[in-house]
Each structure stands twice: as C-alpha cells, then as structure tokens.
Design a protein that fits this description.
single chain; 84 residues; mainly beta; two-stranded antiparallel sheet; 1 helix; 2 strands; 8% helix; elongated
Length: 84
C-alpha cells in the first residue's frame, strides 16, 4: 500500500518492493517434516507508474481477533540470553 501511494502521489516513478521471511531461524535443522515446507523465502516486485487509469483495491485483511496466535514472545529480531 505504501509503495502504491508513493507512485500515485508522483513522488516515485518506479519502486522495487522486496520482501523476505526467515522461519528457519526458529526451526531445528533436524526437523525433516517442517523444514522442506516452511523454508526461507524472498521476492522482488517492480512497481511502475502508468498513465492508464486502472482502479486499485486493497484489502489489508486486518482482524484483531486471535491476535495472540501470531505473536512469538521476545522475537523483536534481537535475542538476549539471561543467566540465572
């Protein structure tokens, strides 16, 4: 949505949108069941301004019900080990 807005506002003519996910850092290397299915991935999509007028629709699908099912405690990208 943000990249689309930058192009529509005239601020940018082209945007390379890159996305990635690394679930392998939370998975055991010995897990032969999940590792082939839930591997790391990345994509790059080029968005470019067009003079043609095409309607664009966005459904962010936000629903706060069951939000706790997608939260991994203490996973802000930095892990700290505490000695007890």
């Amino acid at each position: 949505f943000a990249a689309f807005s930058m192009i529509e506002s005239g601020g940018c003519k082209k945007i390379l949108l890159c996305a990635g996910d690394t679930p392998s850092k939370d998975m055991s290397e010995d897990n032969r069941i999940c590792a082939p299915i839930f591997s790391d991935g990345g994509s790059a999509t080029l968005l470019e301004y067009s003079k043609e007028e095409n309607p664009s629709y966005f459904d962010l699908g936000s629903d706060s019900n069951s939000y706790e099912s997608i939260i991994t405690p203490a996973r802000g990208g930095v892990q700290t080990k505490i000695k007890l």
